[in-house]
Amino acid sequence: QLWIASEAMRKQGCGFVKKAIQSCIEALQADVVAQANAAKEEGPKPAGQAASAPRMYSTPAVSVPLPQPIKVEAKPEPSKLGLPEVTPKMNKVSVKEVSAKDDDSDDDDDANEKPPAPVAAAIAKLKEKPEGVKALRLSNLGVCDVHLQFIIDALHSSQVHLESLDLSFNKLTDAGVHVLCKAFAQGMALELSKLHLGGNKTSPAGMALSQGLKQMRGELSVVWKPQLPDAKSLCTVGTVYVNSPANKAGLLTGDSVLAFGPVQYDRFKSVSDSIVPVVKGNVNKPIDVVVCRMDGTAQVQHLQLTLTPTEWRGAGLLGCILK
Question: Which Pfam families does the UniProt entry name for this protein (predicted)?
């Protein structure tokens, strides 16, 4: 009986669901038909017709008066007002002035190419008595490549009997060495046997130029060792004060001064007579100083230092004691 009752309830539930679905379908069909009928009654709308056009408002035109032309009276000329006419003045430079300026600049360039005074004096002495000069010491005098032509012109004389030429610790470059080697190869100063070029601004390639000179001038020996030949001590460096010009130049206590600018042993009298005038005459100007110093291996070496005398916090212009 229980099974019969449950089966009856199941069949009754299925029937109820079917009726509900059927009623929903009928309601949807009725809505579709109603919408179709409503569309037929309204009729089709023409293409491009807007639903509602916005209202346009027009503003009344406002008349604005045009500006009237302004009369501009002609400005009277200065002469009619009794005033002098003013004309701009141009700075005129004549051809003579321009040429004079050019000549001055050329003179300055020539002045820069002139050799230092000690070099010029040595060349003049050689030209005056060419047969009496056997050794020409031009070391540590700031000789540059442009100064070599003055030396070459003096050595080209057939009366020159020079045996030793010292150009060490100058500012010669590879180009200057090339000029020198070419001049010697062409027969300049045939009696020359020693040429000192150590301590210059030459590269290994410049030093190699002298190797070819040996083939033509076998008797001529070119010395590249950075050392002043036959140098003698002028004085010894004592105390060097911290932050002084001597300290900044690299001078050390115990250095032996071999050359102080143009002063070497053949021109040296005393520190006060020979070195002090050079210091006072070159304030704020560099001075090349060659010193002799022992290196870490107890080897003697010659060093060129640049010392600039100047005022500092301490006493003197050097900041060291020379004795």
Answer: LRR_6
Question: 155-186 pLDDT, tens per residue?
Answer: 988 889 999 999 999 999 999 999 999 999 99
CA dihedral 239, 244, 248, 249 (to 10 degrees): -60
Tens-place pLDDT, residues 1-50: 545 545 555 666 666 666 767 777 777 778 777 777 776 666 555 544 44
Residue 237 and residue 231: Cα distance in Å, rounded?
Answer: 17
Q: 117-223 has which CATH code?
A: 3.80.10.10
Which residues is 263 bridged to in the sheet?
A: 260
> Which fold does the domain 235-322 belong to in CATH?
Pdz3 Domain (2.30.42)
Token readout for 231 is 């140098």
The token duo for 217 is: 């001038």
Question: Is this structure's pTM higher than 0.85?
Answer: no
CB 289 within 8 A of CB 261: yes
Domain map (residue ranges) of the chain: 117-223, 235-322
Q: In sequence order, which residues have a C-beta less than 8 Å from that of residue 131 and are 6 or more positions away? A: 159, 160, 161
Radius of gyration of the chain (CA): 53
Tell me, rounded to whole angstroms, the distance of Cα 226 from its chain centroid.
30
18 three-state secondary structure: helix
